[in-house]
Amino acid sequence: MIIDHIGIVVKDMQKGIEHWNDLFGYKQMTEIVENTRQKVNVVFMHKDNSQLIKLIEPTDETSPIYAFSKKGGGLHHLCFKCDDISTQLSEFKTKGIRTLAQPEPGEAFDNENIAFVYAKQGLNIELIDTDKKANIL
Questions:
Q1: What is the distance between the alpha carbons of residues 76 and 10, in angstroms, rounded to a whole number?
Q2: Buried b / exposed e across 33-57, counting CB within 10 Å, b at 16+?
Q3: Do the strands 27-28 and 112-119 form a parallel or antiparallel pair, or are they unpaired?
Q4: Positive or negative: CA dihedral 14, 23, 44, 126
Q5: Strand partners, 80
Q6: Structural domains in the chain plus CATH codes
Q7: For residue 122, what pLDDT band results from cuts at 50, 70 and 90?
Q8: E strand segments, the chain
């Protein structure tokens, strides 16, 4: 597995994009995509020779990240690209890693499946098995 991106919760998407651009030199890579299942808007940011950053903004108060965003947001997850999500989830289960969200289509990944697990050290881990990103600019 390799790290695909780092997920950061932001309170305001436009301000988040500007912040990552002004402070770190990251450029917007995709249009903002709404993930209706997770009730978030996401955008990928890129910088040459660096990891992708995915900014995540809640769409409303029922979003699972709403309270976190109101506290200022921050690191939400690391995303690892694996060969096959189902196989990886089975392997994680044998190692005591808890699945938070079973595989389901992720709009930010052109509806390819994504899944979330909760790893030790309090880390949310997103799993993907695709290189696709939706709405690349």
A1: 10
A2: bebeebbbbbbbbbeeeeebbbbbb
A3: unpaired
A4: negative
A5: 3, 127
A6: 2-128 (3.10.180.10)
A7: confident
A8: 2-9, 27-28, 33-35, 40-46, 52-58, 74-81, 98-106, 112-119, 123-128
Q: Can you give the length of the chain in residues? A: 137
> With contact defined as beta carbons under 8 Å apart, do 20 and 28 qualify?
no
Q: Which amino acid is at 71?
A: K
Q: Is the pLDDT of residue 121 over 90?
A: no
User: What mean pLDDT is predicted for residues 7-12?
Assistant: 98
Helix (H, G, I), strand (E, B) or coil at 3: strand
Residue 70 near residue 93 (C-beta atoms within 8 A): no
Task: Give me the amino acid identity at 14.
Answer: Q
